[in-house]
Design brief:
By secondary structure, the chain is an alpha/beta fold. The protein has 13 helices and 7 strands. A 7-stranded mixed sheet has the order 2-3-7-6-1-5-4, sandwiched between helices. The longest helix has 21 residues.
Length: 299
């Protein structure tokens, strides 16, 4: 019936220990994905209708994985860092922009007649800065190239889009915008409602990567608990015919002992009837082809 694609920036499967905020089995959502345990190295498993796999984000290229090339690889199924000979980020390199503009999961899905939706919302200041600098993120670049509307304040007020922080608190308190503060579960309801109208829906959460760079245990805990509540509602509320896919672009937050990204494998969680298409996934480049295979089967 459809695919819900959750992209979580900067989370890997790291070692247990006090420097890994995932080394807890009381994180909502995340512990459910890990079958009641902690989302750490070795937590992978496979069941009939769901699986958790540790997949490679390094893609055979030396250096620490970065968002620009990592996300391009994740969203196209092509080895972006290999194409330009290095990892690059946080914004997309000129050498990978054609991939995102012409061969993204959105472009490929729409070519086959499937309806796509990017549910993230952005304040006007984001659009102003992006236009002035001519610099868009991987997700906004590929969405624009696919002809998808980027949501703004109006969609947030109408309850049809989700902000980067889920609760809209930052929009209200930092940007001074007249939007209500909501709970993470309410944001999840918006996603679930939108799933009934499209074939492929994407939501991006980047605060995990930001918290990893900040190296604050308190901030990391707050970010994970907030997203975990959102995630738990989705895991319980997604319809049985839909397939939920969660993946990251590189490691970071799982190791607060460093402020850089990591070379750790990243989690790929899939729940639903399409999970069998991901059983052989080994790299982040395997995600987009598997999503298209799910849509092809359901279409």
């Amino acid at each position: 019936m459809g695919v819900l694609f959750l992209f979580v920036d900067g989370i890997g499967l790291g070692n247990s220990g006090e420097q890994n905020p995932f080394d807890r089995n009381d994180l909502p959502g995340f512990s459910e994905m890990a079958r009641g345990g902690a989302m750490i190295d070795g937590a992978d498993y496979e069941e009939e209708y769901r699986l958790l796999r540790a997949v490679d984000a390094n893609l055979g290229v030396e250096g620490l994985p970065q968002s620009g090339t990592g996300q391009a690889a994740l969203f196209t199924g092509e080895n972006a860092p290999e194409v330009i000979g290095k990892h690059f980020g946080p914004f997309p390199h000129s050498g990978v922009k054609p991939m995102l503009c012409e061969r993204s999961v959105f472009c490929k899905a729409q070519e086959r007649g499937w309806k796509c939706h990017f549910i993230n919302a952005y304040p006007e200041i984001f659009f102003q800065h992006s236009r002035q600098r001519g610099r868009w993120t991987c997700t906004t670049l590929m969405s624009r190239a696919a002809g998808l509307k980027l949501n703004g304040e109006e969609e947030v007020r109408l309850g049809k889009a989700v902000t980067a922080g889920l609760t809209q608190r930052a929009w209200r308190e930092k940007l001074g915008l007249e939007v209500p503060v909501i709970m993470p579960e309410e944001a999840a309801e918006r996603v679930l409602e939108s799933m009934d109208q499209v074939d492929l829906l994407l939501y991006e959460y980047y605060l995990t990567d930001k918290a990893g760079h900040g190296r604050s245990r308190l901030q990391a805990s707050e970010i994970l608990e907030r997203y975990g509540r959102f995630l738990r509602r989705l895991l319980k509320g997604v319809k049985s015919g839909h397939t939920l896919v969660l993946c990251s672009d590189h490691g970071n937050l799982e190791d607060l002992s460093v402020k850089t990204h990591t070379c750790n494998l990243v989690p790929l969680y899939v729940q639903g009837p399409g999970s069998r298409h991901f059983r052989r996934a080994e790299r982040i480049t395997d995600v987009t082809p598997a999503i298209l295979a799910v849509l092809e089967e359901e279409g």
